[in-house]
Amino acid sequence: MGTLQLPNGFVDLSTAYNSQPNTLVSVIGVVVDIRPPKLTMTREHMMTISILDHRLRDSAIGSNGLTVRFFRKDENSLPTVQSIGDVILLRGIPIKSFSGSPIAVSSIPIPMVVFPAASIPEPAFVIAYQDRNRIEALGKPFDVEKITLQEQKYAIDLHHDLSTKIRNVADSAQERAANKREAEASSAAIRPRKKARPSVFGTKFRYIKEVGNMEWANVCGEVVKSFPSSWGYDLYISDYTENQMVWNYPDPLEEAADKERDGDEFNYTSRGETKFPGPYGWLTLKVNVKYPHAQALNEISVGDYVLLKNVKFRIQKEGSKLEGDMWPDNIEPEKINVEKLQVSKLHEHHPRWVEVQELIERREKYWSNRAQKTATERPPEQNKPTSNRGRKKQAQKARKEEKKANQQLERQREQAIVHSKPPPTIPPPKGKGKSDTNPHIRCAHQEIPIETLPKILDAWNTRHTTKTPTGETYIIPFINAKYRASVRVIDYEPKNIQDFAYLSAPEDQSQSEFSNELSWSNASRKWEWFFSLLLEGQKEKVWVHVDHENAQHLFGNDMADPTDLRNDSRLVAKVKEKMCILWGNLEEKAAGEELSNRPFECCLTEYGVKLDDDDPETETSLFGYKKMFRLWGTRIL
User: Fold this and answer.
1) CA dihedral for 594, 599, 603, 604, sign (positive or negative)
2) 146-195 confidence digits (pLDDT tens)
3) Superfamily (CATH H level) for 208-419
4) Are 94 and 516 in contact, with CB atoms under 8 Å apart?
5) Which end of the chain has less neighbouring CB within 10 Å, N or C?
6) Would you say the CATH fold of 434-636 matches that of 13-167?
7) Could you give the CA distance from residue 267 to residue 264 in angstroms, rounded to a whole number?
8) For residues 616 and 492, what is the distance between their CA atoms, to the nearest angstrom?
9) pLDDT in tens, 552-607
10) Domain 13-167 has what CATH class?
């Protein structure tokens, strides 16, 4: 097929994908993903699709399609997209940016037409669709009548050009749907629904064997694996009950029965290492933990016992296996639903004693049985050694493996006690006792232990080093974590306090404002706080940013909203008065004069920002991200 000719006034999807925010574009694309409409918190109907053309398909970025989102008060006003392979034409839709990715958003009526896939002929028959004989098109009558022959021909040619992609996407969608139906059917057969039973862990408490698709529950288990991901933590827990809807982790002993060595046929390569530590089979649940819950996992290790509250269980698209999700709460976004159980402090009269003890007994029974299995199960040729020397060697190996298994069991018994010890007390900066801490600064979350800046900055990447499920070690650029520190301010930016507020741009508005496009085009720009502080511990220093919300918390309720500080001397004086409490004589300090400020306790958040491709720091950064810190939860009294 020759080069596709874009109709007049339209751009290809690659151009639209790379357009600046708030650019209006007219595009034609093939639908490759459909998410059914749902009702938003503003009582609007939202529909999301992804569209693709030949240019975007062949691009290095965005080859999965451009996301298009529609908001309508009336559900009948949403586009009539019926299936993957439909072609949609959109005129004058704005491109926005959400989480760094482009998205086309329509929350007011725009001209749009859908060509159903079933009505699109092969290009050889396009000659039959001329003049008044048009292919079927869905939309408002005026929009349908406005379609030109050039636009119709492009829709037909584009659909044909992407026919292979359409078939692959449709087949994949059907396979996922079939897997989901099969998993849901097996869920009903395997796990009969049980009534809520009394539990000290709440009425929503369930064993892993009891949870199913699209359910919410509290679960308790032992951490068997945990590592950071790009959005939080991948957490693996087990309560040693079986659920055949979760991932199955094969037992190396059973694999060894089919293959004597994990290495190659002639054992030229070394013995392969076990990828999963156990327990094996359908005993381990994977939980995808996001902020703020992921923060609690920074203080939790393998072998600890955790209680996870309000976990949403669903069958994932990838693999069609049951996993748990822990996302921020809509009402209490900072609430953490991960609790580390202090097993060493439990006693027989403690209300949690019985259920935790039952879990420990199930675990010990599993590992005890497996230790015996490890000692007794051997491939046939090992069970029948041909010489006394061979029998002696086999017995020594069996004793060695049994001892190793018992040592592992003993370590697991002790880990809960080791990891539940309270963290060591971190001393304040040198020469500064607790009584010397600034009493006019209040730090929230006193339950977070104070840590030194060296530990927070983690120059040696102790906390930023992790392992993949295959055992590879790598360093992550940042972790979503919160700390408490004792520091003092030794510098600030910008140097002129009149620049502590800036005029925000409309594109900085949040996702919730997608549904009000008129406010985007006529948005009144507002003033917001933003400045940075250089904090010092004993020797180390770190720049932290103070954004609008955290600055409002820092200043307290008696501070007015920011304005143009260059024309508001009263507000500038108020800001200086507040900051003087925080940093003493820093602003007015003469050359050679000592700082008069005292250390204060504050909360810090670690996070990461994606660097631009042309940023010089990209070459030395990890995964293109830069570690940053933000002040939060701190108030000047």
Assistant:
1) positive
2) 999 899 989 998 988 888 777 777 666 666 666 555 555 555 554 454 44
3) Nucleic acid-binding proteins (2.40.50.140)
4) no
5) N
6) yes
7) 5
8) 24
9) 889 987 888 898 888 888 999 999 989 988 988 888 776 667 788 889 999 998 88
10) mainly beta
H/E stretch holding 583 = helix 569-583
Structure tokens at 502: 């800036």
Compute the distance between CA of residue 211 and CA of residue 312 in angstroms, rounded to an integer: 10
From 2.40.50.140, 3.40.50.2300, 1.20.1090.10, 3.40.710.10, which CATH number describes the 434-636 domain?
2.40.50.140
| pTM score, whole prediction | 0.36
Rounded Cα distance, 196 and 190, in Å: 18
Q: Measured between alpha carbons, how far is 549 from 334 in angstroms, rounded to an integer?
A: 14
Domain boundaries of the chain, sorted by first residue? 13-167, 208-419, 434-636
Beta strands per DSSP E along 3-139: 23-39, 45-52, 66-72, 87-98, 101-106, 112-115
The Cα–Cα gap between 384 and 27 comes to 73
DSSP string, 340-358: EE-GGG--TTSTTHHHHHH
HEC letters along 475-495 = ECCCCCEEEEEEEEEEEEECC
Please state, in angstroms and as integers, the Cα–Cα distance from residue 158 to each residue in 4, 12, 143, following that order: 7, 11, 20
Q: Which residue has the tokens 């790379």?
A: 18
